Amino acid sequence: MKQKSLLLLAAFGALALASCQTGRSARDLAAARRAMEESIPNEPRGDYFIGRRCYKVDYKMWGYVRRPREAWTDSRLVMFNEDKSLAPDRASNAIGSDNGFEYRLRGRFSADRVYEPASNAIYPEFVLEKAELLSEKPAPIFKDRRARDPQKRYYPDPY
């Protein structure tokens, strides 16, 4: 009987440890999200964009791009044209190393749309001229954690 009790206690302990989060708590993430939403209307006006890198192993899209003072729900999932400047991860020869990072981008949307074969979809082309790192750990723009996993073939819209 004592052995069964110890076995049950060990199983519950393992279950409790497995359910622990290694990252920020849900409350911390919600607070960070609120702070981000409140800061967006105060962003400086200007001729730049805000970009969030969303790396996926199987896809070639770069991530989401929005204008300053616009919500992430108004952002667009884009393909980069790197003729003028390489994406930051490509420039450092470390593809995907900046997954989730936020950048101030200089460039423009071209009139072209680009086919991405893995997703079998067409995306707007953003001609990148310069990328300046704003944050390596910005507030999340997705409700679903699968969206941040580079191995998952999943691209939801930001919320």
Unreliable stretches: 1-22
SSE succession: HHEEEHEE
Structural class: alpha+beta
List the strand order in the largest sheet. 1-2-3-5-4
Provide a count of the helices.
Answer: 3
Number of extended strands:
5
* Cα separation of the termini: 51 Å
Oligomeric state as shown: single chain
Radius of gyration: 20 Å
**Shape, per Cα inertia axes:** globular
Q: What percent of the residues sit in helical stretches (DSSP H or I)?
A: 10-25%
Main sheet: strands, sense, barrel: 5 strands, mixed, barrel
Mean pLDDT: 84
| Strand portion | 25-35%
Describe this structure in words.
The protein contains three helices and five strands; from the N terminus they run ααβββαββ. The protein has a five-stranded mixed β-barrel with strand order 1-2-3-5-4. The protein is globular, with a radius of gyration of 20 Å. 22% of the residues lie in helices and 28% in strands. The protein is of the alpha+beta class and 159 residues long. The N terminus is likely disordered. It has a domain of 110 residues.
Kindly list the characteristics that best describe this protein.
159 residues, alpha+beta, five-stranded mixed barrel, 3 helices, 22% helix
